[in-house]
Design brief:
This protein is α/β, with parallel strands linked by helices. It is built from 25 helices and 7 strands.
């Protein structure tokens, strides 16, 4: 008798969809890996790490041909290690930062899994990796991708140390690395998350355990490499001129001026703060989830006594308030608490069960999807990039996502709204990273001039005269000197400086001119193709002879 085998139909579950989407959002983080490093900060940091490797000096930080005292060493050490392994490339600068961010995504998943379960963890991961400014920061790489990963890792291990003591050592190590990335303020989100939860759950016994003092001691031990480097470069050499003065202490700057000095606007680096700056910054920085985040925070506070955990809300709000009160503010500062925001937002969305709540979610997110799509089209029409066939990449992804999500999901369900929101974020950022930014980088004169000089005049030294371009310094393969006065040779300079040299009787031969604009500081006149020429400056490669 013949037996028959019944084939079971393939059933696509929400978990399968989430895994597929998660793979896409992880790959999205690498989509800007080959886009040239943006000026000024990204190229400055890349140049500092490059100098470390070239000088075989991992203690001293140099920029602009002199000692540099601003950020701690950890990101430069990691980047220098990448340069040692892979050479001086755009991708070898960005890769370690992206890996640290993905480490943060992993810890976000693990933390949310422990607190709320697998579904919340999966959704929190997707929310984190599609938050707009986080994706942008993988292109314009500074210290924040490192810090984002380190802080959530520290919080997770300290959380686990409540039941498993060895996690205390890992928590202290990650905290120390965070401090060696941005300074002492990194203690705020970590301490507020752990301390806030223990305080509001009234776990007095855990609060007053000696292990927290041990954690501080371990953290202090782990930051010794940073303290030693600062002491060697600055405190041992009071004759060095830093911030226009001698006798500057690197240790004092690390513990006080770089943190509290900026907060109170009394240090050497000053700003002008607005207490509402981060309220409106979050509206675009956390897109397409910002409205849900605000709603999540409001509902969390309304139901304060009913909450199962306070790690995320305390870590996020303490940092948010601190930055809002600070006199020195930049949009990317908040990236470090996006893991907390992602968990809060995911938990809030999944808690929506009433018809009114689900209608609010659907209406809000579909409105955002439409607005984002319109904004992308308007941006493309204004800028008019020379796309070639690059536009096929995001279009193909869009068609694939639409087909899959159309057949997998009922458009009225919470899951459909969620994954379509993720899909529009993937589409937008693929467009930015594969079409818009690569086209815009032709206007970053430093990297373009370096590429031209490397190809046309290999091994020929070029000086910079009365201009500053960290991208030019980083991408040039030949030595680059900074000139206060010019004898003869090839220089990278401005039209005004060339005219000045000609008035001094020098012979200046134009080799090539380059349009100039800081792509990291976009404005409407530049974005509009019709007015772009008026927004551009000019830089030149010039051969000067006496």
């Amino acid at each position: 008798m013949l037996s028959t085998t019944v084939k079971r139909p393939l059933i696509i579950t929400e978990k399968h969809i989430c895994i597929f989407i998660t793979v896409l959002v992880i790959l999205l983080q690498f989509s800007a890996l080959q886009v040239p490093i943006l000026e000024p900060d990204g190229a400055l940091y890349a140049g500092i790490a490059k100098t470390m490797v070239q000088r075989h000096d991992f203690l001293n930080l140099y920029a602009d041909s002199h000692d540099w005292l601003d950020k701690p060493h950890f990101p430069f050490w990691i980047t220098a290690l990448s340069f040692q392994l892979f050479g001086f490339h755009t991708w070898s600068y960005k890769l370690p930062a992206i890996l640290f961010l993905l480490m943060g995504a992993w810890y976000t998943y693990r933390f949310a899994l422990s607190l709320y379960g697998e579904r919340t963890a999966r959704w929190a991961l997707c929310i984190l990796l599609t938050a707009e400014h986080l994706v942008i920061s993988n292109n314009d790489v500074r210290a924040e991708p490192y810090l984002t990963g380190l802080i959530i890792a520290a919080v997770y291990h300290f959380y686990r140390s409540i039941r498993t003591p060895w996690h205390l050592v890992a928590g202290a190590l990650f905290t120390a690395c965070a401090i060696m990335t941005k300074g002492m303020f990194a203690l705020i989100p970590v301490g507020a998350a752990i301390g806030g939860h223990l305080l509001f759950t009234r776990n007095w016994k855990e609060i007053f355990r000696w292990k927290w003092l041990l954690a501080l001691v371990l953290t202090g031990i782990f930051i010794i490499p940073e303290l030693y480097a600062l002491y060697q470069q600055f405190d041992l050499h009071p004759e060095k001129v830093v911030f226009g003065a001698t006798g500057v202490s690197g240790l004092r700057f690390f513990f006080w001026d770089s943190q509290f000095g900026r907060f109170m606007n009394t240090g050497p680096i000053k700003g002008a703060g607005d207490p509402f700056f981060f309220f409106h910054t979050l509206l675009w920085a956390f897109l397409p989830w910002s409205v849900m985040l605000y709603a999540a925070v409001v509902i969390f506070i309304k139901k304060w006594r009913q909450q199962r955990e306070y790690y995320c809300i305390c870590g996020a709000l303490a940092t948010f308030v601190l930055f809002s009160l600070s006199r020195f503010q930049l949009p990317h500062y908040l990236n470090i608490v996006f893991p907390f925001f992602a968990i809060l937002t995911a938990q809030y969305i999944l808690s929506l069960q009433t018809p009114r709540g689900l209608r609010f979610f659907r209406t809000t997110q579909y409105t955002i999807i439409i607005l984002v799509a319109i904004a992308g089209v308007v941006l493309d029409l204004l800028y008019k990039p020379a796309m070639g066939y690059a536009w096929l990449i995001p279009v193909a992804v869009l068609i694939l996502l639409y087909i899959l999500l159309h057949y997998w999901l009922d458009k009225t369900t919470k899951e459909a709204v969620f994954y379509r929101t993720v899909a529009i974020s993937i589409l937008l950022n693929l467009y930015l990273n594969t079409i818009l930014y690569p086209d815009m980088m032709q206007y970053q004169s430093g990297s373009e001039a370096a590429r031209y000089a490397n190809a046309s005049f290999p091994a020929t030294p070029v000086g910079m005269y009365k201009v500053n371009s960290y991208a030019f310094e980083f991408y040039m393969k030949a030595p680059v000197a900074r000139y206060d006065s010019v004898g003869s040779g090839m220089i990278f300079t401005s039209p005004e400086a060339v005219e000045e040299l000609r008035q001094q009787g020098r012979t200046c031969t134009l080799i090539k001119s380059f349009p100039h604009f800081y792509v990291s500081k976009l404005d409407l006149p530049f974005v509009r193709k019709a007015t772009r020429s008026g927004a551009l400056g000019e830089r030149m490669l010039v051969r000067v002879e006496k």
